[in-house]
């Protein structure tokens, strides 16, 4: 049996106020991303349409989770929040977003988790490309996947396909020190010294993500334009990414390791690294691992004078 302490009806009522069409709080599951993908790729369009523009699949007992590069992510029941937000821009206000801007949803989720955890009292920031760091260790990972929905028929009567995004977040909440999967991981319980309410974390996260997503839509998907009263997405990324200013080592898929200083994030979300005098842009797909050049897990900007 599962150990989910979240109430389906309460979460649904809270999420519905922020525009979520489907809310599934699972007692336990293998992977919330896999559950969401199964619905999103159902050949019956009426099944997919139930998801609306925003939906969520969540649990605190995920048994076969996976992160970037298909790394396993498994936690003791009741100790972590796994949540996957399904974003279907074509089904609502985001229909004007260009698919090439969908990758910014990873950052939107990272900033949303950061805001929620900071309000709990956790001093955390982003590690490029998709982690949150607190106390020098990882407390959350974000994984976004682009999904091509099955072909349907548009109003003109011709075949049409729609691209949607699964944005998953795995947050270490009520894990004891001895339950942490690696020595480079931490949890809100370890950092704060007490447990937190998983359901409240989820409902707050959904509220913040919806607000930030709508701000991005109101900016037309332009990461350099403010939207919804928020600073631009790119400005927030630069301000809250610990990696910038740090001396890093990038492990590439072909086995090469490039060291240099991470100087900036460009308007495509790539990290700009200066190595041997040259400034080069690297996307998420270009890099297998990004670590500190001294071999430690975390590369952070040096203290400001």
Automatic annotation (TrEMBL):
SUPFAM superfamilies: Class II aaRS and biotin synthetases. It comes from the Bacteria. InterPro entries: aa-tRNA-synth_II/BPL/LPL (IPR045864), Biotin_CoA_COase_ligase (IPR004408), BPL_C (IPR003142), BPL_LPL_catalytic (IPR004143). Residues 30-217 form the BPL/LPL catalytic domain. GO terms for cellular component: cytoplasm. Its EC number is 6.3.4.15. PROSITE patterns: BPL_LPL_CATALYTIC (PS51733). CDD domains: BPL (cd16442). Keywords: Biotin, Ligase. This is biotin--[biotin carboxyl-carrier protein] ligase. It comes from Rothia aeria F0474. The keyword Oxidoreductase does not apply. GO terms for molecular function: biotin--[biotin carboxyl-carrier protein] ligase activity. The keyword Manganese does not apply. It is an enzyme of class 6 (ligase). Signal peptide: none annotated.
């Amino acid at each position: 049996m599962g150990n989910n302490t979240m109430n389906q009806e309460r979460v649904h009522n809270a999420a519905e106020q922020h525009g979520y069409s489907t809310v599934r709080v699972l007692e336990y599951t293998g992977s919330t991303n896999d559950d969401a993908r199964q619905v999103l790729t159902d050949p019956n369009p009426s099944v997919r349409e139930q998801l609306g523009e925003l939906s969520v699949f969540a649990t605190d007992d995920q048994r076969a989770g996976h992160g970037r590069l298909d790394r396993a992510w498994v936690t003791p029941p009741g100790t972590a929040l796994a949540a996957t937000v399904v974003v279907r821009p074509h089904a609502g206000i985001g229909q004007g977003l260009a698919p090439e801007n969908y990758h910014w949803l990873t950052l939107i989720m990272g900033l949303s988790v950061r805001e929620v955890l900071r309000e709990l009292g956790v001093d955390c920031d982003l590690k490029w490309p998709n982690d949150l760091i607190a106390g020098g260790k990882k407390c959350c990972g974000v994984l976004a996947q682009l999904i091509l929905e099955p072909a349907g028929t548009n109003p003109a009567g011709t075949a049409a396909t729609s691209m949607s995004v699964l944005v998953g977040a795995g947050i270490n909440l009520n894990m004891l020190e001895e339950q942490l999967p690696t020595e480079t991981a931490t949890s809100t319980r370890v950092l704060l010294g007490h447990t937190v309410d998983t359901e409240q974390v989820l409902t707050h996260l959904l509220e913040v993500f919806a607000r930030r997503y709508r701000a991005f839509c109101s900016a037309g998907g332009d990461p350099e334009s403010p939207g919804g009263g928020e600073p631009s997405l790119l400005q927030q990324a630069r301000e809250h990414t610990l990696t910038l200013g740090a001396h890093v080592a990038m492990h590439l898929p072909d086995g090469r390791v490039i060291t240099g200083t991470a100087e900036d994030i460009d308007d495509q979300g790539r990290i700009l690294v200066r190595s041997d005098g040259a400034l080069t842009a690297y996307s998420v797909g270009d890099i297998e691992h990004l670590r500190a050049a001294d071999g430690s897990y975390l590369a952070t900007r040096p203290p400001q004078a």
